[in-house]
Amino acid sequence: MNKKADYTRWIKTEAKRLGFMSCGISKSQFLEAEAPRLERYLNQNFHGEMQYMENHFDKRLDPTKLVEGSKSVISVLLNYFPAEQQISSSYKLSKYAYGTDYHFIIKDKLKALLEFIQTKIGEVEGRAFVDSAPVLDKAWAAKSGLGWIGKHSNLLTQQVGSFYFIAELIVDLELEYDTITTNHCGTCTKCIDACPTEAITEPYVVDGSKCISYLTIELKNNIPTAFKDKMDDWMFGCDVCQDVCPWNRFSTPHNEPLFNPHPDLFQMTKNDWEDITTDTFNKVFKKSAVKRTKFAGLKRNIDFLK
Question: What stretch of H or E contains 297?
């Protein structure tokens, strides 16, 4: 009996049953190729005011420092592409933030996956990571064969594009490892050409401090006036580089009810957003990732766009 093959198959089958779009596995080891890239990114201050990016440099590159004795990184993708989108006469919200905050949903699914592993296989130690710890999600997903890093620095998959979340379980269990897939961006530069703030400085390099997602979510100070009239009406996040990507013509709507938005979201016009009250904010974004900016942050973004 090939235990590693059986364990791997069981885990991938259970991940699918839990609603994950796909699951790939790679060996838990130091990310050698990522080290100089991360160093260059930080040295060029592409992380802007995201000081936390400077912390835990070693942990970002070595999962065995996050989970002692870890052998495998199990990467999963969860689709969030919506069946319906905002009306055109509205300030825009990144599609990932339409419904309930993904951190909660994915964490629950990963905990269920870890419990399955422990019940089915035995004593296995592991930790779930959902974009809230020093883990290079996209690098691990690419290493696990789930896609390639596109010129916009997002993970891309031929069959489904890029509108999905990435998360990991890092475990001290040896499994069969997937192989890296090939890059299919070719000569296409649609994402680079379309970026409203020219944040993609060259293929595969993004100046995070110019990215609309950074400016509307991560930046705590006022948005620099240099970006006035360059924000393309995005009030929270930005999907431009994904929207123009030819691979996203294969995106299909998710089937996670918790990702569906409050019905009022699709009715709101620019005037409605400009007049938004804390009550409306709390109602429409009750459990949304938009809560991260708080009412004052979203209002700052809307006022900047006016």
Answer: helix 294-305
